[in-house]
Amino acid sequence: MNKVVNDTKLGRLVFGGYTEPIRKAILKNTGHTAQLTFYNAKQWIGGESTLERYRLMQLHFHWGLENERGSEHTVDGKRFPLEMHLVHYNERYKPGEAAKKPDGLAVLAVLFELSKVDNEKFETFFEALQQIKEEDSQLFLLHRFNIANFIPEETFPYFRYKGSLTTPPCYESVTWTLLMKKQKISKSQKIEEEIEARKRQDGG
């Protein structure tokens, strides 16, 4: 963090539609992560310093086998047990072509810390996760839920940098925003432990 430069022009993040319930989404076990894909989502993010709007497309998680590491990002050399990426595409492009554009994607990254108690805001979502423990299994989420529950209440300050997708084809088209405020989750809510255990049983 000693190399981080304070940019006063960034301002606060702007969230549009995040208080509206998600109405249509598919939750899938990809074999590597749990991914929630949205269809015709109304949620978008922007910023006080830009007129660009990025519409929500999907979210997924990154974790490790140990609680001390798992996140893709580190803060002062410290890793976290879980990291969530909310992927948005620039509204000026079609979702399928945005990843190939230099300003096509915006990813909001949220780090998680372990808590001794369950995070009640995630209960409905983690109940759904219990149903996709098998690789390639998926679930249509027909009930409504509030995507704002996934975001920390305070979204400022944050880290911002230009980068790439972390999975192939690794297009350099991502504006990364890493929130400094962490979300809380209990160990019992970490479905990744069950997914990894099942993969080991199956020889994966």
How are the SSEs ordered, and which strands pair?
Elements: E1 13-16, E2 21-22, E3 25-29, E4 34-38, E5 44-47, E6 50-63, E7 82-90, H1 95-98, E8 105-115, H2 123-129, E9 138-141, E10 145-146, E11 158-163, E12 174-179, E13 183-186, H3 191-201
Could you describe the 3D structure shown?
It is a single chain. This protein has 204 residues and is mostly beta strands. Helices cover 11% and strands 37% of the residues. The protein has helices at residues 95-98, 123-129, 191-201; strands at 13-16, 21-22, 25-29, 34-38, 44-47, 50-63, 82-90, 105-115, 138-141, 145-146, 158-163, 174-179, 183-186. Strand 5 and strand 6 (50-63) form a beta hairpin. The longest helix has 11 residues, at 191-201. The protein is globular. 25% of the residues are buried. Residues 194-204 have low confidence and may be disordered.
